[in-house]
Amino acid sequence: MNASKRIGVLVGGLSAERDASMRAAEAIMGVLRDTGHDAVPVFVDRDVDLALRQTRIEVAFLALRGRHAGNGSLQGLLDMIGTPYTGSGVLASALATNRAKTKDVLRLHNVPTAPGYVVRGDATESLAASQGSFGYPAIVRPVATGAAMAGLIVRDEMELEAAVEDVLRVDDEVLIERVVEGRSVCVAVLDGMALGAMELGRPGRGGVRSGELLTPSRVSPARYRSLLQVAGQAYAALGCEGGACIELVLSEKLNEIVVEVDTAPLLTPASPLPRIAADAGMSFDELVGELLAGARTHAHGHRRNRRAVQIAFEGHDRRASTQSAAH
């Protein structure tokens, strides 16, 4: 890890995931202090610009969740005052926060994503005309990933109209997508290198989702490699940096489908990115060190990350061989 620095761990925010952010910041500051850094919390609210100037930090370590963590506004402020920060820059953060723009970019780069279209709150065309022959079932979600609302499955025009009205209460735009049946999977990517994957459970408190690491009994080595490859393509298409979590649907009939990209993944030892990194041979302390070393420039840590991916592949293939031999 670098020489001792004064690091501001940006925490809190204005979203429903504030409590999760506080837990992540506590874990991160513990690692930074144990390695000799002067780590101080910087609480993010509407006066964050003043707080950043008063604390006189050298590096900002983002431990936020929700809208201000991922939409590029905080990243833009840090760029303006010349403070390096962890994670993706303004453009990638803004694109990933907008599900419709994410989908547009993925299509341009031939990364598989479900068919869909956007309905705006001020649209003059009827919803029935917009839906046309798109078909059912469909999933209705806010375009903004920071909106505190899960996707709604609809099976007819009446359900569609009700779901769109619900979403328009929390966002100005609605994304309507075709439902792809399959398992929800999260792939962790660090500095462009896919570390591994886990199957996601249902959202819990604050929208945080639990999950189980993928094992040979759940997915073949070939499919596992394909998952990691598609996730890496999505990460690169948006221009992400640092750590990110790519959510995909693992379908039995279709290729892997990218659902969304999280450029500000939660950093607690029990959350997906650290758990997947640990399975690839990287401890939580090492993960925090990699993210810090890559703040803004992302010039360090690639050799270790490549080894971590190699460990992930070797470990998965070795478990598959062991299971096959047992049978």
Sum up the structure in keywords.
327 residues, Rossmann fold, Dna Ligase, domain 1, D-amino Acid Aminotransferase, Chain A, domain 1, five-stranded antiparallel sheet, 12 helices, 23% strand, disordered C terminus
Structural description of this entry:
The structure is a single chain. The protein is of the alpha+beta class and about 325 residues long. It has three domains: about 5-85, Rossmann fold (3-Layer(aba) Sandwich), CATH 3.40.50; about 115-180, ATP-grasp fold, A domain (Dna Ligase, domain 1, 2-Layer Sandwich); about 185-320, D-amino Acid Aminotransferase, Chain A, domain 1, CATH 3.30.470. It is about 40% helix and about 25% strand. The chain is built from twelve helices and twelve strands. It has helices at about 20-35, 50-55, 65-70, 75-80, 90-95, 100-110, 125-130, 155-170, 220-240, 270-280, 285-295, 300-325; strands spanning about 5-10, 40-45, 60, 115-120, 140, 150-155, 175-180, 185-190, 195-205, 210-215, 245-250, 255-260. It has a five-stranded antiparallel beta sheet with strand order 10-9-8-11-12. A four-stranded antiparallel beta sheet has the order 4-7-5-6, covered by helices on one side.
Task: Break the fold down into its secondary structure elements and pairings.
Blueprint: E1 6-12, H1 18-34, E2 38-44, H2 48-55, E3 59-62, H3 67-70, H4 73-81, H5 90-97, H6 99-108, E4 116-120, H7 127-131, E5 138-142, E6 152-154, H8 157-168, E7 173-178, E8 183-190, E9 193-203, E10 209-213, H9 221-238, E11 243-250, E12 257-262, H10 272-279, H11 284-293, H12 302-326
Parallel strand pairs: 1-2, 1-3
Antiparallel strand pairs: 4-7, 5-6, 5-7, 8-9, 8-11, 9-10, 11-12
